[in-house]
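Long-time lurker, first post. I've been practising inverse folding by hand and with some scripts of my own, and I keep getting stuck on stretches where the structure tokens seem ambiguous. Below is the full token string for one chain I'm working on. Before anyone asks, I'm not after the true native sequence, just a reasonable design that respects the backbone. If someone could post their per-position residues I'd love to compare against what I wrote down in my notebook.
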């Protein structure tokens, strides 16, 4: 069976940056199982997987605009240390969830720690980066009705809601 919308696909993947450094991989652990065509992967990778079947392998370089987006410098901002959640000892690279102006959860990364303030970066940590994927397709099956309703794959023994 080929990969197409509304099919559940199991993959083994390694993600590297432009320098060849491994950012993420599931090699040696469970396959990543996802529902195709429901924005569960970055678009640049999902598009390349269409038509592939179990046993195929692909490598693909995904540009930022088809990955986690380009960097937007207006999404960096500085806040007083006193506004951080209680008990947080800020360090560069630390990821936090802040409350936006309307109370929505906003994931941020600490870009810089100054004397009394902290510079926050609201961009995705992989924004602006080329994503080098090596993917082995392990399984392809039709999605169940539940999976289509939920917009994600259900794996046996892993009920996640
Ligand atoms: Zn579900």
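-- Answer (accepted) --
I ran through it position by position. Result:
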């Amino acid at each position: 069976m080929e990969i197409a919308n509304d099919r559940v696909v199991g993959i083994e993947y390694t993600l590297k940056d432009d320098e060849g450094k491994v950012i993420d991989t599931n090699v040696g652990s469970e396959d990543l199982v996802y529902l195709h065509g429901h924005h569960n992967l970055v678009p640049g990778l999902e598009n390349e997987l269409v038509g592939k079947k179990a046993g195929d392998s692909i490598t693909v370089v995904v540009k930022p605009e088809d990955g986690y987006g380009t960097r937007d410098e207006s999404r960096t901002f500085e806040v007083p240390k006193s506004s951080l959640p209680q008990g947080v000892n800020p360090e560069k690279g630390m990821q936090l969830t802040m409350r936006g102006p309307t109370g929505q959860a906003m994931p941020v990364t600490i870009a810089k720690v100054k004397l009394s303030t902290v510079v926050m970066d609201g961009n995705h940590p992989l924004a602006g980066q080329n994503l080098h994927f090596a993917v082995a397709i392990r399984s392809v099956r039709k999605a169940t009705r539940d999976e289509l309703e939920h917009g994600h794959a259900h794996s046996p023994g892993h009920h996640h809601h």
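A couple of notes from the structure itself: The beta strands are 7-16, 22-25, 32-35, 57-62, 76-80, 95-99, 105-113, 117-121, 131-142. The chain has two helices and nine strands. Happy to go over any region you disagree with.
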